Structures are given as C-alpha cells and as structure tokens.
C-alpha cells in the first residue's frame, strides 16, 4: 500500500505537469518523467524506477492528451489530416514498442528517453521564422511520407518509454513538416492521444502499470490539462516555442546527468 505522502505528491505532479503539457502542446511525459523520478525522493516520500514511471506516464498521457485535444479542437487548432495519418501510424508503432519494453531494463529506458529529450531540445532551439499564423487547420499542407516515417520511429520508441513522443512530434512537425506552431501543438495532442491508447494497452497487458500510483497522477492531471490548454490561444506562438524549448532542454540536461551518474561517469 502506497504511503499517503507519496499519493499526495503524485497528485500534485499530475496537476502541475498536465497544466504545462496542455499549455505547450505536450502529452506530458517530458515533464512528468523527470518529476516522477526526482521529486518523490527529494521530498522523502519514496523512489520510483524508470520502468514504473513509464507505466504511469502512458496512462496519464492518455487522459491529459484527450482533454487537451478536445479543448484545442474547440479553438480550431487541430489538423484532422495530421492526426489521422500520424496518429494511427504512431498508435500501432506504440503498441509494438510498449510490448517490447517488457523485456527492457529501467536503465535502458532511461537512456532512450534522455536521447529523445536531447534531440527534441536541439531542434526546438534552431532558428525559424514563424509562418502561417492565420492558416486554418484544414488548409495545412505537409509531406505525408515524411509524416508517416516520423510516426513509425517516434511511436515505437515512445511506446517503449511510456511517452508517445508529443514533446518530439511538435518540433518535428514545425521544422520538418512546416506546420504552423499553434496547429502543431494542437494536433500533437491528438497524435499523442491516439498513440497512448495502444501504448497503454501494451503496458497494461504486460503488467507494467501500478494502478494506485497511476490513479493519483491521473486525478491531478485531468483538471491541469484542461486549464493549460485553455491558455494556449492567449499566448503568442514565439513565446510558446521558447517555453517548449526551455522545458525540453531542462529535462534533457537532468536526464543525462542521471544517465552519466548511473554509468559511473559522474561520482
């Protein structure tokens, strides 16, 4: 039975993490994974392994991404073509990755997550002039083959680490598919939701989800995601991009510090 202090901490992590994920168009894993790994031991309420964290986050992303995409769709910031092509592809790939992760160690999952975060951080800080601020979601054009390939790779890897890859889908859509920032943010949550469905099925059927701990995070994440998504339309695209870059860079640095420490490169 989990300690009350741990459950309260997990609830607050879900609330805060989902707020920023909804605001920045993230499924939430890029924020939740570092918080779940490092905050509980920091406040003295327990320690979670990367494998446990990956099981929690895939379920939380499912809940928060659903709420976020519904809100963004109401604000006309979701491209249904993007979600259909990339979401379905990522969902199937995520299922395969989540099942494969059963035989993968926590240390390996941490290294994979750290690589994904670092790659996304580098992409987000590349200079780019924002275009298409006034383009309607149904008018957005993109390379369908490129979208498919991105979804296969990120979906599979994301399914392994319990992170459907929203934090990396968004920059790839902006910089490689030429999707306007706000529509990329809104559409990414739809893709993350689709991917998290199958990813969650894979984690659940292979016994990788701690139910009580996950429930505590989900209860906090549901209102947090809704509130965060409501504020997206009020913030300029450039500010959103910078905010996303800061969040991803911070998470990547902290992940790699932990990876190097576990590999005994840091004492």
TrEMBL record:
Membrane topology: Multi-pass membrane protein
Transmembrane segments: 6-39, 51-70, 82-101, 108-127, 147-176, 183-202, 208-227, 239-257
Record's subcellular location: Cell membrane; Membrane
Keywords carried by this UniProt record: Cell membrane, Membrane, Transmembrane, Transmembrane helix
Claim: Ribonucleoprotein is one of the keywords in the record: no
Record has Ligase as a keyword: no
Domain of life of the organism encoding this protein: Bacteria
GO cellular component: plasma membrane
Family membership noted in the UniProt record: Belongs to the 4-toluene sulfonate uptake permease (TSUP) (TC 2.A.102) family.
Name used for this protein in its record: Probable membrane transporter protein
Record organism: Candidatus Aquicultor secundus
């Amino acid at each position: 039975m989990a300690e009350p202090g741990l459950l309260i901490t997990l609830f607050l992590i879900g609330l805060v993490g989902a707020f920023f994920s909804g605001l920045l168009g993230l499924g939430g894993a890029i924020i939740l994974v570092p918080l779940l790994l490092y905050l509980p031991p920091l406040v003295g309420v327990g320690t979670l392994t990367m494998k446990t964290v990956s099981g929690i986050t895939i379920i939380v992303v499912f809940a928060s991404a659903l709420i976020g995409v519904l809100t963004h769709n109401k604000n006309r910031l979701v491209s249904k073509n993007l979600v259909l092509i990339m979401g379905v592809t990522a969902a199937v790939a995520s299922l395969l990755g989540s099942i494969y992760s059963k035989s993968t160690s926590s240390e390996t999952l941490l290294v994979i997550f750290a690589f994904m975060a670092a790659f996304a951080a580098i992409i987000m800080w590349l200079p780019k002039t924002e275009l298409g601020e006034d383009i309607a979601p149904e008018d957005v054009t993109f390379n369908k083959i490129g979208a498919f390939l991105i979804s296969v790779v990120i979906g599979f890897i994301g399914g392994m680490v319990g992170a459907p890859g929203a934090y990396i889908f968004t920059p790839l859509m902006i910089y490689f598919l030429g999707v306007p920032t706000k529509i990329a943010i809104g559409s990414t949550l739809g893709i993350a939701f689709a991917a998290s469905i199958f990813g969650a099925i894979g984690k659940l059927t292979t016994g990788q989800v701690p139910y009580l701990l996950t429930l505590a995070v989900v209860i906090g994440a549901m209102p947090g995601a809704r509130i965060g998504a409501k504020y997206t339309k009020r913030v300029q695209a450039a500010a959103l991009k910078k905010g996303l870059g800061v969040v991803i860079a911070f998470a990547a640095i902290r992940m790699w510090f932990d990876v190097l420490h576990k590999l005994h490169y840091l004492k």
